[in-house]
Amino acid sequence: MDDDERVFRRSTWGTNRYVYNSRNPLGRVLIAAAVLALAALLVLMANRAGPFAPSPAPGDDAPADSPLPHRSAPATAPAPPGAGP
C-alpha cells in the first residue's frame, strides 16, 4: 500500500476511462462506499421502501395500515333484523 498512489487510475481495458485505485486508502474507501450504497439501494428496491414506495391512489387519504376505511371503499349498511340470506 502506497499513499503516493493516485486515487483514480486509467482503466486497463483499453478505454479512456478512470477507475478507483485500490492501492490508495481513499480509493478503497470509495470502493467500499459505492458497494454499500448499491446494496442499500437494492434492499430499498426489493422492499419497495423509500423513494421506491408506490404512490397512494388518488383520493385515498388513509394509509394502507390504517384501521379507518378508505374513501374508495363503499360503506356497507347492516342488514335489517329479520332479513334472511
Characterization of the model:
The chain has about 80 residues and is α+β, with helices and mostly antiparallel strands. The chain has a domain at about 10-50. Helix content is about 25%, strand content about 5%. It is built from 1 helix and 2 strands; from the N terminus they run ββα. It has one helix at about 25-45; strands at about 10, 20. It has a two-stranded antiparallel ribbon. Strand 1 and strand 2 (about 20) form a beta hairpin. The N and C termini lie far apart (about 80 Å). The model has no long low-confidence stretch (mean pLDDT about 80).
Beta-strand proportion:
5-15%
Report the radius of gyration as a whole number of Å.
28 Å
Tell me about the largest β-sheet.
2 strands, antiparallel
Mean of residue pLDDT? 81
Q: N-to-C SSE series?
A: EEH
Euclidean distance between termini CA atoms: 81 Å
List the helices and strands and how they pair.
Layout: E1 8-10, E2 18-20, H1 25-47
Antiparallel strand pairs: 1-2
Quick description:
This protein is an alpha+beta fold.
Characteristic key phrases:
two-stranded antiparallel sheet; 27% helix; alpha+beta; 85 residues
